[in-house]
Amino acid sequence: MTFLKRLTRPLACIVLLSGVAVSMQGCVPLVVGGAAAATAGVVVVDRRSAMQQADDLTIELKVNNEMRNRYGDVARINATVYNGVVLLTGESLNQEIKTQAAEIASKIDKVKSVVNQIVVVEEISPFSVITNDTWITSKVIATLATTKEVPSRTIVVTTVRSVVYLMGMVTQHEGDVAAAAAAQVSGVRRVEKLFQIITPAEANRLDSMTGTRTTPKGEGAPIGEGSTGGVQQGGAMQDGGAVEVPAVPSGTVQAIPIQ
């Protein structure tokens, strides 16, 4: 993949822009692994294609700009995007804004699905809440990066009001392990999975394309104890990137209770 060197400088600029957009919204989406963990931007080692990563970042910037320009102080809304799926998190002062935000995001070019997790509140949380979310995110990232059988360079972590959202292209086993590990981090109230599930064979194929190996040849049984329950199952969606995978549909998350 010799083109990556030519991408380095422009991608770095894009990542910096993404960081600005994220900081202005007040939510905390990060990609696990390496220096690229500073923002929810493009990373070199990822199971998504380079083109899909660029598309996701473009969508993210457009949605965040729309949210900021339209709502200002009456809402703090952030978009995190993975494989065209937009996760909306944050706070709004009324239900109308929450509903409008999802409609706006759905109309952005190349958006496939919107998961609306905006919380309606009477008052926008102070900056101290954002700081705490940042701290939780950093701890979750550190935990996932040192957890066996977790593809730590392709999972996006977002924390809002101590609720951790995980996005990425993983096997069922990898997703279970990652969610269980995140649930054990101190300060986490709940973990919600928005993974796109792929087979172990497909994970190995994608990892070999990026020169990494994070998935064992045989997929183990789901963790089960201490990591399941309260799971809402959804339908499927076709990914427009490098591979077609099942995805969590709009408005559906898989919740992992904290033991």
General description of the model:
With 259 residues, this protein is α/β, with parallel strands linked by helices. It has one domain. It has helices spanning 3-25, 50-71, 95-106, 127-145, 172-183, 200-209; strands spanning 28-31, 75-82, 85-92, 113-120, 155-160, 163-170, 190-197, 254-256. The strands form two sheets. A five-stranded mixed beta sheet has the order 1-5-6-7-8. A three-stranded mixed beta sheet has the order 2-3-4. The model is unreliable at 1-26, 33-44 and 217-252 (pLDDT under 50). The chain has six helices and eight strands. Helix content is 38%, strand content 20%.
Give a quick summary of the entry.
Pfam families: BON. With about 260 residues, the chain is α/β, with parallel strands linked by helices. The chain contains six helices and eight strands; from the N terminus they run αβαββαβαββαβαβ.
SS strand fraction: 15-25%
Low-confidence stretches: 1-26, 33-44, 217-252
Number of strands: 8
Radius of gyration: 17 Å
Question: What gap, in angstroms, lies between the N and C termini?
Answer: 43 Å
Counting structural domains, the number is 1
Protein name: BON domain-containing protein
Organism: Sheuella amnicola
Domain BON: 55-122, 132-199
Keywords: Signal
